[in-house]
Amino acid sequence: MNSSQVAFQMLHPDVQRVVYRLGWSTLRPIQVATIEAFYESNADLLLISPTASGKTEAWLKCIDAAKAGDITTNGLIWSYPLQKHVLGTPAISDGLIFIADCGRAFHCLDADTGKPYWTHEIIGEAWASPLVADGKVYVGTRSGNFYVFAASKKEHLLAALDLHDPISSTATAANGVLYVATMNHLYALKQGSSSPVSPP
Questions:
Q1: What angle do CA 32, 34, 36 make, to 5 degrees?
Q2: Among 28, 30, 140, 168, which residue's Cβ finds the most Cβ atoms within 10 Å?
Q3: CA 44-50-56 angle, 5° bins
Q4: Rounded CA gap, 96 and 107, in Å?
Q5: Could you give the C-alpha distances from 102 to 90, 91, 121, 140, 154, in angstroms and in order?
Q6: Sheet containing strand 136-140, strands side by side
Q7: How confident is the model over 58-86, as pLDDT tens digits?
Q8: Residues of the chain with pLDDT under 70
Q9: First CA to last CA across the chain, in angstroms?
Q10: Any alpha helices (H) in 52-100, and if so which ranges?
Q11: Residue 137 located in a structural domain
């Protein structure tokens, strides 16, 4: 057996089933080293694993907070797999959930069932949370792209702007104006305005 197979045999059967369900054909070197260190040492261990070390799975989960005990399992209502990790929080409006992941995907789901309605490929990673306002959903990316979708079950891209600088924060709506902050500029966008967004 190779080192990956040996490390796999050390895992609890429940964890082995998860590995099978994920369809992994082998463990990553960092996973093998971690398993070996955990099972072959009597010392205290501190495990730190950035995403680049192999943590690439992510889910959006709906949990019943009224349950007691370990509600990660007995309170689970639904689970939706995402392409990569998420830095922002989802926006919820009229029974819909909107969430962007760092796999460059923007998702719309049913809040009650987790059923996906649509996924749109976006340019750049989304670090900011989406904003729902005035029947629209707004999200920006680290590539400087800013998207406006209809907040609906049907995918409808209303606008896509290139603001040229990374967007890390959530847009803000106030008094009929949408404020979008990039790394270097703050834009105030208003419907009917004749001032175009131009390169800095």
A1: 70
A2: 140
A3: 120
A4: 10
A5: 13, 16, 11, 12, 22
A6: 131-133, 136-140, 145-150, 157-162
A7: 888 888 877 777 777 788 888 888 888 88
A8: 41-56, 192-200
A9: 59
A10: 71-74
A11: yes
Is position 84 within any domain? yes
pLDDT confidence of residue 56: 66
Q: Rounded to whole angstroms, how far apart are CA atoms 110 and 167?
A: 27
CA 168 to CA 171: how far, in whole Å? 9
Q: The domain containing residue 117 runs over which residues? A: 58-189
Which of 52, 67, 82 terminates a domain? The answer is: 52
The CATH number of residue 77's host domain is 2.40.128.630
Question: Nearest to residue 150, comparing CAs of 113, 111, 108?
Answer: 108
Look at residue 7 in the predicted model and tell me its pLDDT: 87
Q: What stretch of H or E contains 62? A: strand 58-63
Closest CA to 56 of 84, 27, 24: 84
Half-sphere exposure of residue 13: CA atoms within 13 angstroms, side-chain side: 0
Can you tell me the distance from the alpha carbon of 152 to that of 94, in angstroms, rounded to the nearest whole number? 9
Tokens encoding 56:
């690439």
